[in-house]
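cache lookup: miss for this entity combination. No prior model stored, computing from scratch. Input as submitted by user K.M.:
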Amino acid sequence: MSVFLLQLINGLVQGGIYALIAVGYTMVYGIIQLINFAHGEIFMLGAYFALILVTATPLPFWAAVLLSMVFCAVLGMLIDYIAYRPLRNAPRLSALITAIGVSLTLLNLARMLWSSRQRTFPDDSKPAIFQSKIDLETGEVFNAIPLPDGAILPYTDIFIILLAVVLMFALNRLVHLTKIGKAMRACAQNPVAANLMGIKTNQVISVTFAIGSALGAVAGVMVGLREAIMPTMGYHKGIAAFAAAVLGGIGNITGAMLGGIIIGLAEAFGGGYISGGYKLAFAYVIMIVVILIRPSGLFGKSTAQRA
Amino acid sequence: MRNWLVGLMLLMSLAFVYGCDTGNQVRVAVAGPFTGTAAAFGEMIKRGAQLKEKEINEAGGINGKMLKLVFKDDAGKPKDASNVANSIADNRRFLAVVGHFNSSCSLAGKPIYKQKGIVELSPGSTNVKVCEGSDWTFRNLYRDDFQGQFVAEYVNKYINEIKTVAILFDNDDYGRGLRDGFTSAAGNFGLNIVASEAYDRNSTDFKAQLTGIKAKNPDLVFISGLYSEAGLIVKQGREVGITAQFFGADGVDSPDFLTVAGDAAEGTYLTTPFIFSEGGGEALRVAEAFKTEFNGIEPDTWAALSYDAVGMIAEAIEKTFDQDASLADKRKAIRDHLASLNTPEKGYTGITGLTYFDKNGDTVNKPAYVKIVENGKFITAPQQLLNAGSQE
């Protein structure tokens, strides 16, 4: 029973991380119909930036995370400004190719700067709740919940799930209750009409990039805490998150959140109960099945709400 | 205008061809994972090879010609390895190849090197099949059937009260081959395998597999994979409450394992084809020279094996040297020379010991050693098993 519970938690943690990345893909697609392939690299750079801040400066961990979010938000806006805005009226394929180009440039830049080695946050830089471990001699458990049959549930995992839920809820409220959220929804419905109504579409697009990138940075730090930081992490997690966005119906925020959770659970249960070697394959099989049945994804365009 | 441009380009390409004139050089390719998740191995292979290159050239080169190593990156991926193999074999300047490192890369290169007739001498591939079926592929270390059995025997003899074992293996040729070697020997040494879980090289999250393993509560977890994933597995394993002994194989033998795993690495056992302190005077001299050359960095097993591999190829070129022979004949002569090293008397003595080949091109005489992590460092384990069941 506790194996099932733990796999459920594993799935929700991965799912939460995928959801945080997937909303970045989906929000941008919702407004400018561009699959921003560089988003995975922004996620990766968010992790690196936080790592550099905690190791090279005396900044506390949380300040580093906030700064990294700001850095990624600015980077996201900058990429849009430099690479995508000039192509706003060009054929969609041009912007897509540009996105792939930006993605490869950032990936290789990271390789040059930090080599392709895996890095992790040093233990002394992490807040205590992320340092779960078990004492091998006494069996005493630190920063984790001991389960009856000897397994432990790290606080990190619970924290990531809660954080993902809070951020997703906040994003949902932002899109539905604030003025900028309304502007985003308007641009998603019809950018030309929105512009005619006095909405500065370019500003709205910049804000969209900023929000998506900041959430990506948070996801990057969480992956860094729980797993490892390396230049290709953006590609591997990004592609799964992209699958999540497609599965949920690209352009739809709720769909991206749900898609992330489904992909995460498929990985955990498929990997845990069937075969770990094909963990990612299970996620894609589920995606393909859903797309075959509902070509526009779970919450595809038929529902009016995008952004 | 256009003619002028074409003329210039022709001139430049001519200059390029002559600029690379190999009249005074002997070129050997070194293929390995210089980028990617196995890059820490690649760095050591490169340094070990560069040290030998420097020493050979300072001693006057090969028959008066300078040895020039060219490093070709296969990123540890078989797909890239085939491309690299083709580009090396088609390049008329290369006489032989030191590499590849990853078993799946050596296997991907094997048919290409065989078809085009150029020697592949691996300083790191241990999968059983690497040298099978090709006269052109050799290696200077043991095979995984030996290594797997060695691990089982060592665990049975020297680690107390191990009855049940879980295996986590990398889903590639190395990981699966070593798992098979270990699995087939485990029964003979009283080990009961309770779980055998695969993982994918690109993964950084192993908690799904580790949760399943934790439920079986094994006494020992054997990791059949590379250091980068092994580091994360050990770390995440302790986080899900696995208290079992961790045991890795030579794929884990890299200082990067320690940096990735951190405190969780403590007490992990691993096998390795070579330990400098066991290698005698010449090995210690090379270790010192290595540290001087590379700013105090300690050499590892792979640096030593590639140092020796370059030495063997250089010796083969020297002994078969014939200025006027065709490229194919030069390459063939190197192969024939290596193949002739088939008895202990004829073998090549390097810092990692005596290397000679059986009919496949395998090295079957070299022992395995055991290291253990103590206070954040690899140390030679107090018990060694040098007379483990022979490979043949």
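stored under new cache key. Chain B touches chain A through 40 residues (CB under 8 Å).
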